[in-house]
Write a structure and sequence with these properties.
The chain has 337 residues and is an alpha/beta fold. It folds into two domains: 4-204, inorganic pyrophosphatase (n-terminal core) (Alpha-Beta Complex), CATH 3.90.1640.10; 209-333, Diaminopimelate Epimerase, Chain A, domain 1. The protein is built from 13 helices and twelve strands. The longest helix has 16 residues, at 27-42. The relative contact order is 0.10.
């Protein structure tokens, strides 16, 4: 990270700080944001976490979630927080478009902006950056950030619980983007008192009955396997959302079930929203879904996990996806799983 001493000097004086992260925040987005908040508050800063939209219910146990400002349900609070903060930290996204209307507010600020992120091709809207596409998660980078500032001693249990949750969810329970460095970091968090069994239980064993019924419906009625492309697709319609009372976070992880099939290298989840059709892409082995998301669906992300969207509706989006598969057939068939 360049200019770390300048940033450390800025943080040596108490400030009003806003931390924000991307729309539809996941475990890493919320975990990294709250972990950073709990660290900065120990330095004497006044910190608000503001996000564009609601986050999954299974993260509600995390320390500080009750104080998070949500633009979709409290625009005036977020606008007030972003009137004149001394600093803004942007976590787990690479473009102000990822935070919708909040991005327009931040773009108008004259304040210092810090980016901490692991996604490809960040746009230059920041003054300071800690960016590493090889990192497992933004939570890992927040841990590195605190260390770079010489404040490892300030990683208390609240900070550690939040960062562990972000790492746990973004690596798929330590299946993706792992490294020796990451496991050493996780060992440090466990030594600080993180109860990994407790957090695993809170994150993964907090389903309601409707979630299991939705999973059964999806796998039985909404799954299509295209053996000739080693690809599987699941879809959800607006009617499905109404029937199963699907809310924010209820579909988290559905696409990953497709990758449990031994011959599937590419999985896609396509679902209708009120104004757009959202797309989640996952892959195994060396096949990259980032190019598909960026080239065909206005999105991006990581090698094995990316997302995008379209405005043409569910069925046309599925048709479009199937039409591009021949372009990637050889890569999929030759992919070493």
């Amino acid at each position: 990270m360049e200019n770390i001493n300048e940033l450390k000097s800025l943080l040596s004086i108490p400030k009003d700080i806003v931390i924000t992260t991307h729309r539809n925040p996941d475990g890493d987005a919320i975990g990294s944001s709250l972990g950073l908040r709990h660290y900065l508050e120990q330095l004497g800063h006044t910190v608000k976490v503001a996000v564009p939209s609601e986050f999954p219910h299974f993260l509600n146990w995390m320390p500080g979630t009750k104080d998070i400002l949500v633009y979709d349900t409290g625009q005036e609070e977020v606008k007030k927080a972003l009137e004149k903060p001394d600093m803004v930290f942007c976590l787990d996204f690479n473009s102000l478009e990822r935070i919708d209307k909040m991005g327009e507010l931040i773009a108008q600020l004259k304040t210092k902006i810090v980016l901490i992120d692991h996604h490809l091709y960040p746009e230059p809207f920041y003054d300071f950056e800690l960016h590493d596409v090889t990192a497992s998660s933004t939570s890992e980078l927040v841990y590195d950030f605190i260390n770079l500032l010489g404040d490892k001693r300030l990683i208390n249990l609240n900070v550690a619980d939040c960062l562990f949750t972000g790492i746990l969810t973004d690596t798929g329970s330590f299946k993706y983007a792992t490294s020796p460095k990451l496991f050493r970091l996780v060992a440090d968090l466990l030594e600080l008192g993180v109860d990994d069994n407790r957090i695993q239980n809170l994150v993964f064993n907090s389903l309601e009955e409707k979630h299991l019924r939705l999973l059964g419906h999806v796998l039985d009625n909404r799954m299509e396997v295209l053996d000739e492309y080693r690809t599987a697709i699941i879809t959800l319609t607006k009617q499905d959302y109404e029937k199963y009372k699907i809310s924010r976070g209820d579909t988290e992880g559905l696409v990953n079930y497709l990758l449990q099939m031994s011959n599937v290298a590419l999985a896609i989840f396509i679902h209708e929203q009120p104004t757009i059709t959202k797309i989640s892409l996952r892959s195994k082995g060396n096949f990259s879904v980032q190019e598909i998301a960026k080239k065909h669906f206005r999105g991006g992300g990581h090698k094995n996990a990316s997302g995008g969207y379209s405005y043409i509706g569910l069925r046309p989006t599925v048709k479009k996806f199937k039409s591009i598969l021949p372009e990637y057939k050889d890569l999929l068939l030759n992919n070493d799983l």
